[in-house]
Amino acid sequence: MKYVNADHVFPEALIREIQKYIQGGLVYIPTPKSLHKKWGENTGSRQLLNRRNTDIRNQFEEGSTIDDLVEKYCLSQESIKKIVYTKS
C-alpha cells in the first residue's frame, strides 16, 4: 500500500474536518464494498480453480471414479465429492 500526503489529494476544508478527529496520524480509507473483488480475481486463481473443477466434473460424468480423481488431482475424497456433487 502506498501512502499519499493528504495535502496532495484532499481539499483544504476536508483536511481541516479530518484534523478534528486525528492530527499527524495515519488513516486508512477503505475501498467501497461495491468495488471489492472476490478472492482470486486479481491473480487468476479463481479462474484456474473453476477450470479444474469443471474438468473434474466432466471426467466424473465420463466415468472416472472418485479414487481416480483423488490420485490425478491430489485432493482428498471429500474435496472431490464436494466438487462433483455440488452444482456450479
Overview of the molecule:
This protein is an all-alpha fold. The chain has one domain (6-85). It is built from five helices and no strands. The chain has helices at residues 6-9, 12-19, 45-61, 66-73, 77-85. Helix 3 (45-61) packs across helix 5 (77-85). The longest helix is centred in the middle third of the chain and has 17 residues, at 45-61. The protein is rod-shaped and about 70 Å long.
Topology of helices and strands:
Layout: H1 6-9, H2 12-19, H3 45-61, H4 66-73, H5 77-85
Organism: Paenibacillus profundus
Protein name: Mor transcription activator domain-containing protein
InterPro entries: c-mor_Regulatory_Protein, Homeodomain-like_sf, YraL-like
From the alpha carbons, calculate the radius of gyration and give it in angstroms.
24 Å
Give the helix tally. 5
Give the tally of structural domains. 1
Q: How do the SSEs run, as a string of H and E?
A: HHHHH
Largest sheet: none
What is the approximate shape?
rod-shaped
**Regions with pLDDT < 50 over 5+ consecutive residues?**
none
Helix content: 40-55%
**Which secondary-structure class do the elements indicate?**
mainly alpha
Distance between the termini: 34 Å
Average residue-wise pLDDT: 92
Would you report the number of β strands?
A: 0
In percent, how much strand structure appears in the residues?
Answer: under 5%
